[in-house]
Write a structure and sequence with these properties.
129 residues, 7-stranded mixed sheet, 27% helix, homotrimer, 3 helices, alpha+beta
């Protein structure tokens, strides 16, 4: 296996870390959040989920990959009750992004804060190419 | 390396995500919790740990794997003090599941909530086959 | 790919888990914290970051690896505001450890507690060799 890394940087923290690093067939993505290209955070949780997956897709595309390449997702949410009360809307937006039932493992935990106070979810993914 | 995925689905969220996804030699498991086959959550932390490992073993078995195949564990606990006060009981149950001292990396953090209010721990694992 | 594991154990929890497990080209590290060889926790966040990376480097060295081999980092912090208010100092210490801009993905979340009350950060890493 080729052990040389390739990576993609963008966004306000690009000096600090890459949005994704590929080594061999594995692709590790930085946690993605519901912010659009202008830095605006979506107001509600389903909207943040939709934007986060748009960002995940954009990062994957830099490596010629799609959401089909994801194997593992971790949802870090700031309010589990909010997630549970909007579960169908959240997973509907996610399935719209995937275009079909995702073949991916998932873990969901509630953390006490994310990078910005408005953020309700951060999605950390691993892909294989 | 074969980059096609295989996966195993079960449980109430099987429409949303797989319990594990294999790609190449890597197997990513969804976080497992201390719930039995009837959906009953164990009352105390050591009991939840025992059930979570039973669930991990069940998922691994679908891929012909055992706990020996685990390489990385993350413990998401809801009360670090409770874990510390029951540390020996918790790790005794875990070692019973493994049958020997585990050869696995581990990270332990306290989150503010898991999927169900009664859950005290969720264990996220990566295995290699 | 060789699926046999090799591992490195040290520290107070060495009976419970390895500091790192290698399988094939992948190396999974246990979360590392800002504690020195005498068990003393650094007083402030930049100091804990510096010590945590010293510990990560020490673990990597057991496998003939360096920080250049890291592909993914998760920062579990206990106070996001504290991180944000000391962001430059934290990332300066990190870059000193790396010796150059790191080529690594990163995810940062705030958890509600780590293994010891004094800990402000735990860094979980994956490396490829």
């Amino acid at each position: 296996m080729d052990s040389s890394k390739s990576s993609y940087r963008s966004g306000p923290y690009k000096e600090y870390f890459a949005q994704a690093v590929r080594v061999g067939n594995a692709l590790y993505l930085a946690g993605q959040v519901g912010v659009d290209a202008h830095g605006v955070v979506a107001a509600d949780l389903p909207g943040q989920v939709e934007l986060a997956y748009a960002n995940i897709r954009r990062v994957l595309a830099k490596f010629g990959a799609t959401l089909d390449n994801l194997v593992d997702e971790t949802f870090f949410v700031t309010d589990m009750q909010e997630l549970m009360s909007q579960l169908e809307a959240v997973y509907a937006r996610r399935q719209q992004a995937y275009g079909k039932p995702p073949e991916v493992a998932q873990t969901v935990v509630q953390v006490s804060a994310l990078l910005l106070p408005e953020l309700k979810i951060e999605i950390k993914c691993i892909a294989h190419l």
